[in-house]
Amino acid sequence: MDGTTKPLSVLLIEDSPDEAELIQAMLAQSRREQVRVEHVTRLSDGLARLASVPVDVILLDFSLPDSKGLVSFERARAAAPHVPIVILTNLDDEETALSAVREGAQDYLVKRHVDNELLLRSIRYAIERMHAERALWESEERYALAVSGANDGLWDWNLTTGAAYFSPRWKAMLGYRDDEIGSGIEEWFSRVHPDDNMGLRKALEAHLAGNQPHFEREHRMVDRSDKPIWVLSRGLAVRDTAGKATRMAGSLTDITARKRAEEQLLHDALYDALTQLPNRTLFLDHLGLAMEQARRRKDSMVALLFIDLDRFKNINDSLGHSVGDELLVDLARRLTQFLRPGDTVARLGGDEFAILLNDIHGASDATHVAERVLDLIRGKLVISGREVFTSASIGVALSNPSYKAPEEILRDADTAMYRAKAAGRGCYQVFDQTMHRSVVALLRLETELRQAVERKQFVMHYQPIVSLEDKRIVGFEGLVRWRHPERGLVSPARFIAVAEETGLIVPLGWWVLEQACRDAREWQRVVPMNPPLYVSVNVSGKVVMQSDMYERVVTILEETGLSPANLRLEITENVIMDHGDLALEKLAQFHRLGVQFSVDDFGTGYSSLSNLQRFSYDTLKIDRSFISGMDSPGDASAIVKTIVALANMLNINVVAEGVETAVQLERLREIGCSHAQGFWFSKPVDRSAAHAMLLQAPVW
Ligand code: C2E
Ligand code: MG
Ligand code: MG
pLDDT confidence of 568, banded at 50, 70, 90? Predict the structure, then answer.
């Protein structure tokens, strides 16, 4: 300390005037430093001083009027914890003074034995010791803070002996108590994760050999309960004069949380959160690799199955998103279990999944899997206690060298999937190049159709519906045709699907309905019949879903003057299944108005006979595919017979569609089918031909 420059300030707390005088006199004799003494006679005055004036040392008498012995020391120290205290005592009280020293007093002096030399030395010594203690305490505290603040474990390795020190925190990070880990360096290496051992040793060696200025390595260790934890090891070697490392010390930081967060981020970027399947990004990555491999191997191919659930939106809307989610998770699980280890299943989004089949040897391998996937998905599932019917459409694409990017094969599988949807869903289609061409053609069709709707380039044809009892016309089904400027009359089979997809079916549907109602009303006027002639109009699900459907139909009926009782709306079973309660509500509304409903193409769609009663249809139109099978006795006849019998029982009308032969007609009559329609009677004809047919009143 630099007592030579600054005067030494001493607080003397001493009640005896003689002794105070004596001590002050001794202090005044100091030659090394100037000493300034503050003298008080009571402890309380001394404490007050300490609060206002800084002092270098306290000389404290042990018998004061207001305080005695150890208590005086404790209070003084509490008032000035960093100021050294030297106790002044009498011979008889040496014991107490000694205990004060044990408690932290710097020294004690027996007053009778003191001389100026001893006094000054004691004071200087006390001050110096206090400084040293304080410095040590501060550095220890800083060190302790640093260690605990960084939460790091420390290690110190003697390279000569192989002994190592591991701090308690180092051990605690691995789940051990301080006494549970020894002091050899193997205590560390034996707990390194086997996969990371080599890397760690290499990094250590690189630094010890002097090739790396620092040692720093992220690696895994295995903790006490055999769980891996991620750590960051850092260290620095101490070298002898020859540059050889003799000792190395460093720290160990637990970075498990950070690693987990990093892994999570990576996982989230590549996996679907709901199903935990790879997402589109990761799938394309796998696909790219697989295509690369297939290119190199001669007889190996890659196939892609693009899976889209049928009517998933319907499930979501009617049963709720949580049921939809559960369905997807369940499906993901089943697809994963079903696949071979090398194959990948991914969720591309929504209800779209993709399967990558590696190393297959031909298209039939892929279609075989597609069939099995269809079987896997098709059927009834019970989710959250509710029955859900599922099916899927699958597009299959096979790799060939002309594919440059994985996106291309995915696009083609997607195209094939749409084909499968168009082919009636629940099936698969394999992509071929004509599909690509037809995608282009489809785009052109869409543009042209849009123009046609704007310019009303359509015409209505009508096909008679005949009563089998008296073979007379009871109504007409309206069937639209497109009057294409170059291609002439285009069949609805060519464009209705596109019109549905693009929504053009809605304006087209209103046009059709109005034409049909107007024509029917006109015929009713010219050819009155009893009961009056009715017209049957095909209505798309898209139209049913229009919120103003009811009002628009009412308006058309009012404007054309056709009675609601003479209008029949034809919808397919799928419309009901797709739109559920909402469709049923509309049905009921129209029923109240007197409009009737026919189920078109009955038997091909979704519902079953058990739904008939629930939906209270007026008429079933048995699909042509059943009728055409009736020429020869067998299943088809049996099915038609059952449908007719059931319909009769439920008081529902039946129209057999697509009757082409006398045999079919005869069978239908035997079965008890009441109405029929088909080329046997007449093809759909234009408005004036239909008019003529009515006037002529043919009996077949
Ligand atoms: P659909 O409603 O089942 O109509 C019956 C289809 O079967 C008509 O085909 C008709 O020409 C055909 N057909 C009738 N009798 C026979 C037969 O004996 N043998 C054969 N092979 N075929 C017969 P078209 O006119 O080509 O219509 C096809 C489908 O297009 C219709 O099937 C209907 O679903 C739809 N469609 C037609 N017009 C419209 C419309 O205005 N709106 C809507 N939404 N769809 C329509
Ligand atoms: Mg129809
Ligand atoms: Mg039909």
Answer: very high
**3-class secondary structure, 491:** coil
CA distance readout (Å), 273 to 11, 92, 277, 354: 74, 83, 8, 16
- Asked if pLDDT for residue 633 goes beyond 80, the answer is no
In this structure, the chain runs to a length of 700
Q: Quick one: 257 exposed, middle or buried, by C-beta within 10 A (0-12, 13-18, 19+)?
A: exposed
Residue ID of nearest Cα to ligand 1 atom 4: 479
Q: What is the pLDDT of residue 610?
A: 61
Is the separation of the CB atoms in 350 and 279 below 8 Å? Answer: no
Closest CA to 532 of 516, 517, 521: 521
Q: Is the CB of 601 under 6 A from ligand 1?
A: yes
Q: Is the shortest distance between the CB of 658 and ligand 1 below 6 Å?
A: yes
> CA 85 to CA 123: how far, in whole Å?
9
Q: How far is CA 326 from the centre of its chain?
A: 13
Cβ 457 vs Cβ 489: under 8 Å = no
196 C-beta closer than 6 A to ligand 1: no
- As a whole-number percent, the residues of the chain with pLDDT over 90 amount to 56
Residues 405, 292: Cα–Cα separation, whole Å: 10
- Does the reported pTM lie above 0.85? no
Counting Cα atoms < 13 Å in the Cβ hemisphere of 592 gives 7
Does the Cβ of 143 fall within 6 Å of ligand 1? no
- Cα-to-centroid distance, 518 and ligand 2 (Å): 18
Query: In the predicted model, is pLDDT for residue 138 greater than 90?
Result: no
pLDDT tens digits for range 243-276? 899 989 888 989 898 888 888 888 888 999 999 9
Cβ atoms of 452 and 507 within 8 Å: the answer is no
- Looking at residue 359, its amino acid is D
Reply yes or no: is the peptide bond before residue 7 cis, omega within 30 of 0.
no
Per-residue pLDDT at 609: 63
Positions of E strands within 369-522: 379-383, 386-390, 392-398, 428-430, 458-467, 473-484, 488-490
With a 6 Å cutoff on the Cβ, whether 540 touches ligand 1 is: yes
SS percent in the chain: helix, strand, coil, step 5: 50, 25, 25
d(CA 426, CA 297) in angstroms, rounded, equals: 34
Tokens 């404007």 -> residue: 559
The string of pLDDT tens digits covering residues 174-219 is: 999 989 999 999 999 999 999 999 999 999 999 999 898 889 999 9
Q: What is the residue with the minimal CA distance to atom 20 of ligand 1?
A: 658
pLDDT score, position 3: 41
Task: Give the separation between CA 693 and CA 678, rounded to whole angstroms.
Answer: 15
DSSP 104-167: T--EEEEGGG--HHHHHHHHHHHHHHHHHHHHHHHHHHHHHHHHHHHT-EEEEEETTT-BEEE-
At residue 535, the pLDDT reads 98
Instruction: Give, using CA atoms, the residue closest to atom 43 of ligand 1.
Output: 538
